[in-house]
Amino acid sequence: GKKLGQTILKGHKNYDLMLNLQLGIRYSVGKPGSMRELRAADFDPREKFWTRFPPEGSKITPPHHSIEFRWKDYCPMVFRHLRKLFNVDLADYMLAICGNDALRELSSPGKSGSAFYLTQDDLFIIKTVKKSEVKVLIRMLPNYYRHVRRYKNSLVTKFYGVHCVKPIGGPKVRFIVMGNLFCSKYHIHRRFDLKGSSHGRTTDKVEEEIDEMTTLKDLDLNYVFRLQKSWYLELLEQIKRDCEFLEAVGIMDYSLLLGLHFHYDVSASWTGLSPCSASPSKCSNLKCWYLMCQHNFLFRKPLIRLGLNMPARAEHTARSESDALLASGTQSDKIHDVILYFGIIDILQDYDVTKKLEHAYKSLKVDSNSISAVDPKLYSRRFQDFIRRIFMEDD
Ligand code: ATP
Ligand code: CA
Ligand code: CA
Asked: Whole-model pTM above 0.95?
């Protein structure tokens, strides 16, 4: 299939950064030192360590071909535990990020100026972040850890590590390693970044330019999603818990990132979910697919996790002039069997001075409830209201 992003080869402006990052991660993850129980002190914001990487190598670092840099690990023991909790195999992790395959750089998908790198196997995303975002993450880390440990189905971003690279004579680059929500054997046909706000929430692309790589937004959404009852209830419950967590740690401006796979080919076996052959015209056997899902639900634990591989039906809707979605009735030709991927991303923005100013400024021009920048409590409520409008119980 088509791969997102541009592979970073020698000569690329971020080639050295990539090398440093790979060296650093290999060092951090491979560092001997046994796993032990977490202590309160492991969460201390001062729990961070600089390591020097001279090109000629040192007692603890290997020789390398880029200029000297320093490498910082934030709360390494906590992230060790998080990787374990998220079932990340260390060998896989290292191989994905530090293996011979270079990383791919995504052409800045967000407005914030962060850079995004994807591992060749699509498992991990590395995002450069601001100092303030690292602060927010480290500050929320005890709550975050407690939350994701308690709720295995939590939809909030899975963080695997936070680091900083400082090349000699160059600026610090801070970044986080997280899970790629769209790592799947199913092709993602549509992707939406949804906040529950409406002001400015459309893609800037014209219709003909929109494809599988386009991140669409709230006002572009022309589907509602029908989920089997138990999943529907579980989803609402989990979104509520996740929003309460985000509210409690003072976060706003996050999104539900949603990927849609239209399931056209259902010659899948009954034992597993086999990938779509991507022939968008053949839609003959929807019943079979649907039965298969039911089968899984009825006779064994579903193969599906909340937000991952989730079978659903997407109903085409019309949009009104405002942000309201209007269900178009139940014409079966407008309902597609889909597989959903979703999670809550971009959870490192607190309601700081800039966001308060943005709110004040934009409220002068438009309805203040349509602006993305609102306080965490309001944000959470609006976000959940939105979720309740776009997901429905299937009958
Ligand atoms: P802004 O603050 O302007 O919204 P940002 O630079 O903070 O943008 P994000 O909102 O974190 O960026 O992400 C931008 C886009 O990158 C998302 O809309 C999504 O398409 C993609 N993306 C981010 N995180 C993930 C993830 N964990 N898995 C898959 N795709 C992701
Ligand atoms: Ca965002
Ligand atoms: Ca952001």
From this structure: no
- Which amino acid residue places its CA nearest to atom 25 of ligand 1? 180
By C-alpha distance, which of 18, 343, 348 is closest to 184?
A: 343
Q: How far apart are CA 178 and CA 232, in angstroms?
A: 26
Question: Which CATH fold would you assign to the domain 190-393?
Answer: 3.30.810
Whether 190-393 and 6-179 are alike in CATH topology: the answer is: no
Q: Find out whether 274 and 264 touch, Cβ atoms under 8 Å.
A: no
pLDDT tens-digit series, residues 247-298: 999 999 999 999 999 987 544 433 334 333 333 322 333 434 444 444 444 4
182 lines ligand 1 (CB under 6 A): yes
CA 391–ligand 1 middle distance (angstroms)? 22
Homologous superfamily of 6-179: Phosphatidylinositol Phosphate Kinase II Beta (3.30.800.10)
| Boundaries of every domain in the chain | 6-179, 190-393
114 within ligand 1 shell (Cβ under 6 A): yes
Q: State in Å, rounded, how far the first CA of the chain is from the last one.
A: 35
Residue with tokens 């709550």: 143
How many CB atoms are located within 10 Å of the residue 202 CB?
12
Measure the CA–CA gap between 317 and 14, rounded to whole angstroms: 43
* Cα 221 → chain centroid: 19
Instruction: Give the whole-angstrom CA distance, residue 209 versus residue 176.
Output: 31
Q: Which two tokens stand for residue 246?
A: 């985000």
Give the whole-angstrom CA distance, residue 225 versus residue 229: 12
